[in-house]
Amino acid sequence: MRAVLDPNVIVSAVIAPGGAPARVLERGLAGDFEPVVSALLLAELADVLARPKLRQRVAVADAEELQQRISERSLLVADPEAAPPLRARDPGDDYLLALAHEQRAALVSGDGDLLELAGRAPVFTPGEFLRMLDDPELRGFGA
Predict the structure, then answer these.
(1) Residue 118 pairs with which residues in a beta bridge?
(2) Burial class (CB in 10 A: 0-12, 13-18, 19+), 134
(3) What is the pTM of this model?
(4) How far is CA 119 from each of CA 72, 78, 115, rounded to the nearest angstrom?
């Protein structure tokens, strides 16, 4: 199974290490599913982790180590050139939809603009995705 983790899920994992986003991230880094990343996703993650508000909660070294682990343990693919079949209310999220669509991957997000597409696109909250990982009948999604 493949999944694209919205950078907001990764940031939430860092801020709340006991929450569902953290469990999703750790399971991806442990190989329970194949995380998919692209240059745009990694750049957005780096940008968010470098913001002063987050620097108060996440040390520079910890942010860099996390980015390194994600880069090493994820499938790095080219950013899609084609538009996604569905568009988000926020056009800045469309690259995530296109990436998930092109890679036949689930999109794990906490963003309401993306979650409103659930049922029409494979977009899941971290909690929903964890349940998918634990249900053998659902694990085939995005394989």
Answers:
(1) 121
(2) exposed
(3) 0.92
(4) 32, 26, 9
pLDDT reported for residue 138: 66
In angstroms, rounded to a whole number, what is the distance separating the alpha carbons of residues 68 and 85? Answer: 31
Residue 131 burial (CB count, 10 A) = 13
Distances (CA, A) of 4 to 50, 61, 100, 109, 133: 21, 24, 6, 9, 14
**How far is 38 from 78, CA to CA, in rounded Å?**
6
Determine contact, residues 74/36, Cβ cutoff 8 Å. yes
Q: Which CATH superfamily is domain 2-134 in?
A: 5'-nuclease (3.40.50.1010)
pLDDT digits (tens, 9 = 90+) for 70-80: 999 999 999 99
> Coil, helix or strand for 5?
strand
Residue ranges covered by each domain of the chain: 2-134
The two tokens of residue 64 are 């860099």
